[in-house]
Design a protein that fits this description.
Layout (H helix, E strand, L loop, with lengths): L1 E6 L4 E6 L4 H10 L7 E4 L5 H12 L3 E5 L2 E5 L6 E2 L1 H4 L9 H8 L1 E5 L12 H9 L3 E5 L2 E5 L7 E3 L1 E2 L2 E2 L1 H11 L5 E5 L5 H12 L3 E3 L5 E5 L8 E3 L4 H14 E7 L7 H9 L2 E5 L3 E6 L7 E3 L11 H8 L4 E6 L9 H7 L3 E6 L2 E6 L7 E3 L3 H13 L3 E5 L2 H6 L3 H7 L3 E6 L4
Parallel strand pairs: 2-17, 3-16, 6-7, 10-13, 20-21, 24-25
Antiparallel strand pairs: 1-25, 1-26, 3-5, 4-5, 7-9, 8-9, 11-12, 13-15, 14-15, 17-19, 18-19, 21-23, 22-23
Helix pairs in contact: 1-2, 1-7, 4-6, 5-6, 6-7, 8-12, 10-12
Length: about 425
């Protein structure tokens, strides 16, 4: 198991090229199961979660080729089983249920794993499949789906903490091969859902309304192969913008879609940072004194829960009290205890809310990564901490950031990755 040593102090400057979106690439790769024909996906990031998805596709009988960020999938022969040994490693693997049900009318998929950031049930997915006419059973740790035929229906996708992105993806992929019209109400509007819809349309699907809370799908009898380029990863871009804000002079993220980052750049501006935007690039720099801020996570286009931990780290540098509330995953504050080990002043007065008193003083300490975005927050804090911060269990980082340490080194950070020899 690797660990990362972050040397605090060096100033960052330069340009970072952002990779393709993990949260787009995973369901798009699953969607290749919907056709027997060849699909070519470009700008697929080099991540452990992507490796797991490709393993699942290969196990189910797909021919998979990968080179230089491009993945080619041929799903001519298909098994409908996705076993525990692979699925347990990554929660997003549940998105194979929709395409398996759509194409084969059956699926047996293990209940998922992934990082632990609170309860993330898939009940909305399963209710949606039932609305389309599928029979659903959960037994021995597996979801078993079966349908003689799928019929269009009105499918609600809004849950207790907002719309479900993976649920919207799953229902969308099943509905494209259902009979009649499916209306997904309360659909997730994230850019990653739009990206999936665009790929499905390229395959011959009929979809309207992606990017709104009401998606209309007119089912077709079959889909064909297609070629597609994955959108930029807005969370990776946001993380590097926060790195530039915390430890940079001027840092530019390139190969991005600025409109996808509007909530993040607005929050940085409120905190006192200068933001300049080009057609495919954003630059962050210091704009005088810093200010505390208040943030509440919300479904897109609101502030993303996947940036909550990084902004907790940023708030430690802003004088005064900042308030951050996570309405999507209220239990997602496990990074707080580790940041406090580094000298951060953070209180959790209630579940889902953090109060950060910025003092600008962080000191290096051994810390433990608990999930993907918490890992990134600890790296960001290490960039400003006095001394060398040791971050353990960094396999979380490799799930969602393509060569994070190398990219930071490229703009001036001093970071070492060490092999510990422990499992």
């Amino acid at each position: 198991m690797d660990k990362i040593l972050v040397h605090g102090g060096p100033r960052l400057s330069g340009t970072v090229r952002i990779s393709g979106s993990k949260n787009s690439a995973l369901p798009i790769l699953a969607a290749t199961l919907l056709t027997k024909e060849e699909c070519i996906i470009h700008r697929v990031p080099d991540l452990s979660d992507i490796h797991y998805m490709l393993q699942i596709l290969a196990f189910m009988g797909c021919e998979v080729e990968r080179a230089s960020g491009t993945v080619i999938v041929r799903a001519e022969k298909l098994s409908t089983l996705a076993p525990y040994d692979i699925v347990r490693k990554m929660r997003a693997s549940v998105c194979v249920m929709g395409p398996l049900l759509g194409r084969e009318r059956e699926a047996t998929v293990s209940l998922p794993g992934g990082c632990v950031i609170g309860d993330r049930p898939i009940d909305l997915h399963l209710r949606g499949f039932e609305k389309l006419g599928a029979m659903v059973r959960v037994e021995s740790g597996y979801v078993k789906l079966f349908a003689n035929r799928l019929r269009g229906s009105v499918v609600p996708m809004r849950g207790k903490f907002g719309s479900t992105v993976l649920g919207t993806d799953n229902i969308l992929m099943a509905a494209v091969l259902a009979e009649g019209v499916t209306i997904i109400e309360g659909a997730a509007a994230e850019p990653e859902v739009v990206d999936l819809a665009n790929f499905l349309i390229a395959m011959g699907a009929r979809i309207e309304g992606a990017g709104t809370d009401r998606i209309v799908v007119e089912g077709v009898s079959s889909l064909h192969g297609a070629e597609h380029r994955v959108i930029p990863d807005r969370i990776e871009a946001g993380t590097f913008l926060v790195a530039g804000a915390m430890a940079g002079d001027r840092v530019t993220v390139r190969r991005v879609e600025p409109s996808h980052l509007a909530a993040i750049t607005k929050a940085l501006s409120v905190a006192g940072f200068q933001i300049s935007t080009e057609s495919d690039a954003i630059t962050v720099g210091r704009n005088g004194s810093l200010h505390p801020f208040n943030l509440t996570t919300a479904p897109y286009p609101g502030f993303p829960t996947d940036m909550q931990a990084q902004f907790c780290a940023l708030a430690t540098l802003c004088p005064g009290q900042s308030h951050i509330k996570d309405t999507i995953f209220p239990q997602r504050f496990m990074h707080v205890a580790e940041l406090k080990r580094m000298g951060a002043e953070i209180d959790l007065p209630e579940v889902g809310r953090a109060v950060i008193t910025g003092n600008g003083r962080l000191s290096a300490a051994p810390v433990m990564a608990s999930d993907l975005r918490a890992s990134a927050a600890l790296v960001l804090a290490g960039l400003k901490a006095e001394g060398v911060t040791e971050i353990n269990r960094v396999y979380h980082i490799d799930r969602g950031y393509e060569h994070l340490d190398d990219k930071l080194i490229g703009i001036g950070a001093q970071i070492e990755r060490l092999k510990t020899g422990r499992p």
